[in-house]
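Obj.: predict assembly geometry.
Materials: sequence records (below).
Method: joint structure prediction, all chains together.
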Amino acid sequence: MAPVLQLKSITKRFPGVLANDHIDLTLQQGEILALLGENGAGKTTLMNILYGLYQPDEGEIWVREKKISVHSPTDAIRAGIGMVHQHFMLIPVFTVTENVMLGEESLRYGDFLDRPKAAARIREISTKYGLEVDPDTYIRDLPVGVQQRVEIIKLLYREADILIFDEPTAVLTPQEADELFEIMRLLVKQGKSIIFITHKLREVLEVADRIMVIRRGAVVGETTPKDADREKLAAMMVGRAVNLEVEKESATPGDVVLEVRDLEVANDQKQIMVEGVSFEIRAGEILGLAGVQGNGQTELVDAITGMRRPTSGSIRLLGETVTYATPRKFTEMGSAHVPEDRQKDGLVLSFSIADNLILNTYYKEPFARGVIRQEKAILANAERLIEQFDVRTPGPLIHVGALSGGNQQKVIVARELSRPIKLLVASQPTRGLDVGSIEYIHSQIVKKRDEGCAVLVASSELDEIMELSDRIAVMYRGKIIAIVNAGEVTKQEVGLLMAGVQIDLTDAGRKKGRVKVESTF
Amino acid sequence: MAEIIVHRKVEEITPRRKYTIAVVLLLIAGLMTGLFVVTASHDAFTTFGLTPGGITRGSVPDLVLPTLEVLIGLTVLVGLAGIYQLFKGFGRFTNLVLGLSFFLFIFALLIWTASGKSLNLGGLLKGSLLLAVPIALGALSGVMSERSGVVNIAIEGMMLMGAMTGALFGSITKNFWIGLGTALLAGLLMAAIHAVLSIKYKVDQIISGTVINIFGAGLSSFISSKFMQTYEYLNNPPIFPRVPIPVLADIPFLGPIFFNNNIFVYVLMILLIVMQIALFQTRWGLRLRSVGEHPKAADTLGINVIRTRYMAVLLSGLIAGFGGAYFTLGSIGRFEELMTAGKGFIGLASMIFGNWSPVGAVSASLLFGFFENLGPSLSLLGSKIPNQFTSMLPYIATMVILAGVVGRGQVPAADGVPYEKE
Ligand SMILES: Nc1ncnc2c1ncn2[C@@H]1O[C@H](COP(=O)(O)OP(=O)(O)OP(=O)(O)O)[C@@H](O)[C@H]1O
Ligand SMILES: [Mg+2]
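Observations (raw structure tokens):
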């Protein structure tokens, strides 16, 4: 059968970077093609070219054996191509309906929006593909998992049949990811074809029909899940063997570094998201904060980094009360923060890499002397960290917005880990990173712990929590419902806790195997 | 399946705010007692004229109020509101009550000042409306542009150029329609410069706007002083006459104020309604707003960001040009240097206070207009308040109302950010 899509010899150069180097790609009708590659390998660039957001320097795009020219997304949409972008393309102050219909509006009486009609279509698509969402809510009120569904509905609404998913699972919980795979399988069964980008090898092996690997802009190989395993894929991607497990000794906890008592925190809508939370972290240990997204982890992390004012309770850092302290105060006391939303809270996208690397130390020696910036020191610092954290960029003066998603994350991690710190609060520290970088960042976090730093890792990635943590705190509906030693629980047990299931973790309870179900999931 | 979790909410009005407002209300009541009730003379009457001068259609007899009694009534009302707030609280109506109380205070001030005399309330309101017209047009011009993500602080300059060209060509042709046409054109041209600079060349929009303001002020002043002030026939345009609207103009009280005006007021009303509906209910508006909120997202859905922004800025210029023409062709009938006197900027302030919505922006403009008119009206009545204070009134009032009632606004997320594709 003829392929639905063919990319022939696509080449794209950015200043100083060859992002795509004569890439050929073929997509068959009804298949899921996984695109695998390191951060900055050029996956997003290739997809943006296919979707008309970038113009290729060379190469051709063929859809159903017809050569097409894609000058803008309009051309791509017309050719039946749809894309879920790595960074969501949703307008927070619009409703679901408005976001979905934008560009392809249902109208009545001339130019007037027919919202009910569009909403009805959305409901139809919702039921057909199991993408549950209320068309009348505002995007800003939706958890990311649901926002993802809205993105998918946008494609289906336009009746696209070549679907591009650029790292759709980076922000999803494992359960949500599984739901997404169900949907993807359903979609291909209905005759659609999918290009799927991810860094999670488990997902590739689970859902792909064919796997294509690119490295530094060029195709380095192709395989199928049958012929590959995680180690092999990792090696193909990075070009060397990767250690997929975290290596660490058992912890030797010291003094209490962070102490949180009866904390209550509200979100921007004034809803109380964290309720009566108490815990402490000691020097030299890693506390994993597990929980399904939207159960208060975000607000809790915001509060203990000074980004959000708690409504009650107290926070003590190194014995000093810092409940209402500013982020600067936290930073100066030796606390580091890798924020969940890297583009919003972690970086100034229009600033250079060098400047982003000193965002919280720019006013100090050696980066400033009095009010004068010390360009030499700033540049040297940038070059050292780029090298050390393997940030893929043509140079330290490139603005951060031009980096690939994963490399943006590395810039933040480099900035936070390169300071002498006593507390590290990392929220989704490896979101969107390739296996090689995850290996490096995990080892760095463990190294910080071994140097006597207290670490809080919040992650919706259960594997990450299980591997890194010494102790695990599980959050459910704003409360910490259990704090357990990592060695004493299984992944399944933590998964159940995350879903609000109360389990008896004593040996006696385990033997009985009795599980008290408080809510279903 | 993700379930919907219902979260407990932090109380909407914090206890501290609740009591602060109660104290403020009681203070207002106290102020009303101390300033007005105590000093008002017994048996005096305040007469309010309800029909603006020079208008006969829809006129109503004067309203005569017993000064002291009404003052006491108003004070008691505010006082009771304060007490209620102290013990029970108005909940989510708190801000509304605060705003209303503020207006009762102003009303009391009017009654007190006009005690034993007569104040033309109809005239006061109509005057406010006319003062608000250019502010409101400036505000709508701003809404149009900023909703698409382009900050337009050049409205003042555009208005000046509109006012000047309108007067010049209106005088030459002796035709106010041609004058108006050229004013629109002038606004459009100025906007085109702003659009090219800020959209195409991605010049900082504040800088571009400032440059255009300076250019507009300079050029209009130059042409004015060189030609228009020396040759009187170049600065003597005909003015749009007042056209009462059949039926509506006869509505008692409201008719004379709203429906017996010239074309500028009517166009403002129509523009307000059209923009409000178009922005929020049509495809055109949805796309325009999407470009102002998240241009990249709009782009991925096939919306032409650049073209949309050009369109919005040009329309913004047309509205500003129209607002400028009001000065020369709609009210005064000649051009004076820098005659817009900051109205464009106050329009921008109104836009912000009105939360970037047409209705909000025009409401805020009316408020500005009212307080701007209040000062002079009071001094005319022989008020003892020094006029330096009364001319501060519009600004103090807006600050109070904004801080207390409006709260934090919602800026279009991509306002002022140039769009770059790659
Ligand atoms: N707009 C741009 N301007 C300049 N360089 C860019 C731009 N977009 C991408 N690049 C560069 O092109 C290369 C490929 O980036 P791309 O975003 O395609 O990577 P990716 O494979 O999607 O990585 P990730 O997995 O981290 O998302 C990177 O080196 C990046 O710095
Ligand atoms: Mg990418």
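Conclusions so far: The mean pLDDT of chain B is 90.
To do: check interface contacts against the pulldown list.
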